[in-house]
Write a structure and sequence with these properties.
Helix 4 (128-191) packs antiparallel against helix 5 (196-210) and helix 4 (128-191) runs antiparallel to helix 6. The chain has helices at residues 2-28, 70-101, 108-123, 128-191, 196-210, 277-305, and strands at 38-44, 48-50, 53-55, 59-66, 215-219, 225-229, 233-237, 240-241, 244-248, 256-262, 265-268. It starts with a helix and ends with a helix. With 306 residues, the protein is α+β, with helices and mostly antiparallel strands. The strands form four sheets. Strands 5-6-7-8 form a four-stranded antiparallel β-sheet, covered by helices on one side. A hairpin with a 2-residue loop joins strand 2 and strand 3 (53-55). The longest helix is centred in the middle third of the chain and has 64 residues, at 128-191. Helix content is 60%, strand content 18%.
């Protein structure tokens, strides 16, 4: 009887010790990015059957679980990918706005000076100074158009470089997620307990990935994640990774676009599949604003020349 009493007491102390260790782990990781608070799940030991009924045998810790809500995490990731997309779009379009509004580089002031010179010549065609002033304002206007055209061309090149860099980052995150999938699968199959810290790391990678491109996830029976983008295109399936590429567009070799590596080579993806995140923001800005600005600038220059 004494032995049973001591055993029950020891089991309670051991459970409390694990609870203290878990609390200490929470405190130590309060500033760890992506860390979720953990708690112990305590259960009763199997009772011993006697003539007087079932006698309790103390308690044990059945598992250590994360304080984690999949719904809230999904909502945060959706908000994050939208914020990242809009932030990138705003940063890029602000460059065009500042360029057009700048009195020293915009076209508006140069156009006003040119037509002012035209009016002076029309009022007094024989006045040499007025004609020279009109020629000078015309040369300044041409220089403004050329300067803006060069700046827009530089923005195209910058976007090409950013697309290449961010596609490489997407591949890096996808590879790390696949590696953590494998570690989680091995851990759960060997001890049938969730590796909480590794799962936190994987969730943080998913969050970081959403800052680049909008993705969704599904969970397999072995605890691994599948990661999809677009309309269900696979990026990570368990420990398998689909490699994205930054490749020249078949329609315009000067533009970088996103492709997906497969057995037959690189499959160029429609830009409509790349949504959310900074990568989606770049592609959206280029198609919606940069292309439109470059076309309208070219049409204005051509119309003025004619």
């Amino acid at each position: 009887m004494g032995t049973g009493l001591l055993s029950s007491a020891v089991s309670g102390m051991q459970s409390a010790q694990i609870g203290l260790q878990t609390a200490q782990h929470n405190i130590s990781n309060q500033n760890t990015l992506g860390f979720n608070r953990q708690r112990i799940v305590q259960a009763s030991n199997t009772a011993m059957l006697t003539g007087a009924g079932f006698i309790g045998q103390g308690a044990h810790v059945s598992t250590v679980e994360r304080m984690y809500d999949q719904f809230l995490t999904t909502q945060v990731n959706r908000a994050q990918t939208t914020t990242s997309e809009l932030g990138t779009y705003y940063t890029q379009i602000s460059q065009i706005d500042n360029m057009l509004a700048d009195a020293n580089s915009g076209v508006s002031s140069a156009l006003q000076d040119f037509f002012k010179g035209v009016q002076q010549v029309a009022a007094n065609p024989a006045q040499l100074s007025a004609r020279q002033s009109m020629v000078s304002s015309a040369e300044a206007l041409v220089a403004r158009f050329q300067g803006m055209g060069n700046r827009l061309e530089q923005m195209y090149q910058d976007i090409n470089g950013q697309i290449t860099t961010q596609v490489a980052s997407v591949n890096s995150y996808a590879t790390q997620i696949a590696e953590l999938n494998q570690r989680i699968t091995i851990a759960q199959s060997s001890i049938n307990q969730p590796p909480n810290d590794v799962m936190d790391q994987r969730d943080q990678l998913i969050s970081d990935l959403n800052k680049l491109i909008s993705v969704t996830t599904t969970t397999n029976r072995d605890g691994s994640f599948n990661v999809f983008f677009g309309t269900g295109q696979q990026l990570v399936v368990g420990s398998q990774v689909a490699t994205m590429t930054a490749t020249q567009s078949t329609a315009d070799p000067t533009r970088m676009t996103v492709g997906l590596q497969n057995v037959g080579g690189v499959q160029e993806l429609p830009e409509s599949l790349i949504t959310g995140g900074s990568l989606g923001g770049l592609l959206r800005f280029r198609s919606e604003s940069l292309d439109r600005t470059a076309n309208q600038l070219g049409q204005s220059a051509a119309s003025l020349a004619m």
